[in-house]
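Subgroup meeting minutes
Present: P.N., E.W., G.H.
Scribe: E.W.

1. P.N. recapped why we're keeping a running log of single-chain structure predictions: easier to compare across weeks, and new members can see raw inputs and outputs side by side.
2. G.H. added today's entry (250 aa).
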Amino acid sequence: MCLIGFEWQPGTDTPLRVVANRDEFYARPTAAAAWWPKGDILAGRDLEAGGSWMGVSRNGRFVALTNYREPSATQFDAPSRGQLVVDFLRDPRNASQYLSGLRAIASRYNGFNLLVYDGRQLLGYESRTDRVLRFGRGIHALSNACFDTPWPKLSKIKAGFVEADHDTTALFAILQDAEVAPDSQLPSTGVPLALERALSAIFIRTPCYGTRCSSLLMLGRQRAEFTERRFEYGEFVEENRFEFAFSGLT
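Output recorded in log:
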């Protein structure tokens, strides 16, 4: 996952709403969002490393992962960060306890950010800063730097979230915004300028890399609605939609 916008409204009928884009190389094999064989996890699947980037469990847990863009710090023998998504969804501990354990081993992985929700607590973790975050009510966003870093596309996704309100069509339209940011507003993350430009868009298209899926998740107190739209080479392929009641909250 490379772009996440989320609205946190604890105590309401819909405590958490999430919009997200996953960007990846087109050649990397991927399975669409579906219930996994044990029937406990609803998520897409990375068929190369076996993990995922975003998912929700039968009992109302949610997690999403982004990589921290820092090419110079890449460890080529590091374990797959996608396994962290699966680990959290199947972990019996609450969000705070899980992140406390994760901090002890986070340095084994390449840089990442994790957004976790256990049905009560919503927390973020930045491995690059070893920081656990609690979020105030309202709209937040995350890409390939720290939470709420003011990159142009994060500012756009936050503003779009407000304008779209609960309009599903409008939310998905925001996720397909392919406009790149002006050079004067680009971050400097260690990649070539042409790539920095391409990556500044909400919806990314390059010859070999781009947005592979867009997701919309509504987490209520007792049920979830999850819609995924899949793309290949920038073109729409299919939409999968799921609704289910939680089997119990942790």
